[in-house]
From TrEMBL:
<dbReference type="GO" id="GO:0015031">
    <property type="term" value="P:protein transport"/>
</dbReference>
<dbReference type="InterPro" id="IPR004565">
    <property type="entry name" value="OM_lipoprot_LolB"/>
</dbReference>
<keyword id="KW-0143">Chaperone</keyword>
<keyword id="KW-0472">Membrane</keyword>
<keyword id="KW-0813">Transport</keyword>
<keyword id="KW-0998">Cell outer membrane</keyword>
<protein>
    <recommendedName>
        <fullName>Outer-membrane lipoprotein LolB</fullName>
    </recommendedName>
</protein>
<keyword id="KW-0732">Signal</keyword>
<comment type="subunit">
    <text>Monomer.</text>
</comment>
<keyword id="KW-0564">Palmitate</keyword>
<keyword id="KW-0449">Lipoprotein</keyword>
<keyword id="KW-0653">Protein transport</keyword>
<dbReference type="InterPro" id="IPR029046">
    <property type="entry name" value="LolA/LolB/LppX"/>
</dbReference>
<dbReference type="GO" id="GO:0009279">
    <property type="term" value="C:cell outer membrane"/>
</dbReference>
<dbReference type="Pfam" id="PF03550">
    <property type="entry name" value="LolB"/>
</dbReference>
<comment type="similarity">
    <text>Belongs to the LolB family.</text>
</comment>
Length: 211
């Protein structure tokens, strides 16, 4: 509420009425809170990550995919993930630390850079990676899945770890199954390893986070 409106409320009776209304509103909002369940559930109402959220991950990846001729291929190495708001920069490196590709994705566009070639830009990061690398990583979903949370943009089925209710065990969303294989213990916390699988077209991804 603007400061000027407070200065205009010179009547004590109006002030008391305003405070009473605010208190009633707060009580009503509190009554709307829903206690979370810990079993299998479906949801598309998970809160979006803040536009100011910043995350950084470092780890290892392996990808098994089919090339354009239907032959099984493998790619593996290390990765660096930096996320600032809705912009993600993902660097893929081979096991010797040499850059394979750098992907920058935002709500407006996506850019992919590979050594000794001009950067390529497109509207869709998945199509861009598929066309250039032969496989695509689900960047938009990973913004949330790396934090063991379903994306808020579509329907999802979630299963919580029955042995530790604060941890996610599985998310099924947008044609992907995300299995949370391991979590880091203190002093580090969060997801340690997650496996992602998709049936059509088939794609298997394994991520190990060193953070």
């Amino acid at each position: 509420m603007p400061v000027l409106s407070f200065l205009e409320l010179t009547s004590a009776a109006v002030r008391r009425a305003t405070l009473s209304a605010a208190a009633a509103c707060a009580v009503a909002l509190a009554g709307c809170a829903v206690t979370p369940t810990h079993g299998p559930s479906t949801s598309n109402a998970t809160p979006a990550l803040s536009t100011q959220t910043m995350h950084a991950y470092r780890g290892r990846f392996s990808v098994r995919y089919l090339d354009q001729n239907g032959r099984s291929r493998n790619a593996y190495g290390n990765f660096d993930w930096e996320q600032q708001g809705d912009t993600v920069t993902l660097q893929l490196l081979n096991p010797f630390g040499q850059t394979l590709a750098i992907v920058t994705s935002s709500s407006a566009s996506a850019t992919l850079e590979v050594p000794n070639r001009q950067p390529v830009t497109a509207d869709n990061v998945g199509e861009l990676m598929q066309r250039t690398l032969g496989f695509s990583l689900p960047i938009e979903g990973l913004r949330y899945w790396l934090e063991s949370s379903p994306a808020p943009t579509s329907h999802a089925k979630t299963i919580v770890d029955p042995d530790q209710s604060s941890r996610m065990k599985e998310i099924d969303q947008e044609g992907w199954t995300i299995d949370y294989v391991a979590y880091a213990d203190a002093p580090a916390t969060g997801v340690k390893r997650l496996d992602l699988t998709r049936r059509d077209p088939p794609l298997d991804i394994k991520l190990v986070l060193d953070r």
